[in-house]
Amino acid sequence: MNFLKGRPRVRGGRSVNIKDWEKQNELLASWNDEVCSGETIPEVEIISLLEEQIPKYRLRADTLTKFGGYENQDWFIPSPALQIEESDLKLSPDQIRETLNYFLLCSNRVSQMTKTYDDIEAVTRLLEEKEKDLELTARIGKELLQQNNKLETTISSLEVELKSANEKSHNLHMNPLRKLNLFKYLQVIWTNLASKMV
After folding, report:
1. Chain-centre distance of CA 95, in angstroms?
2. pLDDT higher at 154 or 115
3. What element of type H or E holds 107?
4. 3-class DSSP state of 8
5. % of the chain residues with pLDDT over 90
6. How confident is the model over 29-52, as a mean pLDDT?
7. 76 or 187, which is more confident?
8. Is the pLDDT score of 10 beyond 60?
9. What value does the mean pLDDT of the chain take?
10. Collapsing DSSP states into helix, strand and coil, what is residue 24?
11. What is the dihedral of CA 5, 11, 13, 15, to 10 degrees?
12. Residue, of 18 and 152, whose pLDDT is higher
């Protein structure tokens, strides 16, 4: 609480009002009582809030790791994650060349991205490209939706045609059976009539 005691400082030739200084001290004291009442609560101790600059922080010692790493295996991935075998290290010249090209391409992209942080025109170009990509995506989505609607109408009309074709096929299959049954019935009647006439 040493930073709360003492005289108000004069910054840049300005005089500090004593009432403002007292209000500030009361506010900081109440804040300190509410937030920092126990020693175990804060992980970061605020050194100074009164100066017009970025506050300074002091980190406490990490009692969990003690700079020896975490004991729990879930908190880190061992390096290398996979065991390297001798057969995996034998690369063909094409694989070596393509791997090198891949790394060069990645580094070029990283350098382009770091350049764009300072270059407003590059950021504008990237945003324009994104906007064009979004417009293209919207157009493609609209066309796909139209094609989907056309396909749905085609499917429904084909289902109607299939239903009518199945009915016709069923009728064509049943008509010969009916005719055959009728023919057999007429044949039985004819034979009965012929036997009665004789």
Report:
1. 31
2. 154
3. helix 93-118
4. coil
5. 12
6. 52
7. 187
8. no
9. 72
10. helix
11. -40
12. 152
Q: Say how many C-beta atoms besides its own lie within 10 A of residue 46's C-beta.
A: 16
CA distance 105 to 93: 18
Q: Which residues contact 123 (CB under 8 A, 6 or more apart)?
A: 116
Cis peptide before 8 (omega within 30 of 0): no
Locate 46 and state its tokens: 């605020």
**78 DSSP assignment:** -
Residue identified by tokens 């605020």 is 46
Which runs of E-coded beta strand occur in 8-151? 44-46, 57-59
Report how far Cα 25 is from the mean position of its chain's Cα atoms. 47
* Residue that is written with structure tokens 């790493």 in the block: 69
Amino acid (1-letter code) at residue 197: M
Sign for the pseudo-dihedral over CA of 142, 143, 149, 155: negative
Q: How sure is the predictor about 163, in pLDDT bands with cuts at 50, 70 and 90?
A: very high
Sign of CA dihedral 112, 115, 121, 123: positive
